[in-house]
Amino acid sequence: MSMKRIYLILGIIFTIITLIGVGYVLLNHGEVKAGYACVPMVFAIIFIVMYRMKK
Question: Where are the transmembrane segments (predicted)?
Fold first, then answer.
């Protein structure tokens, strides 16, 4: 498996984790920290940028 494909898969996984984090924050009416959604999104952006740079 090429690194390009690995970056894409990791980007998708972290995007899904981000959406789960957003749901968790919204279900708790914002009383939990937004980091549950923000931190995975940072990793998703990093992996998506790395995927695009490999093209």
Answer: 7-27, 33-51
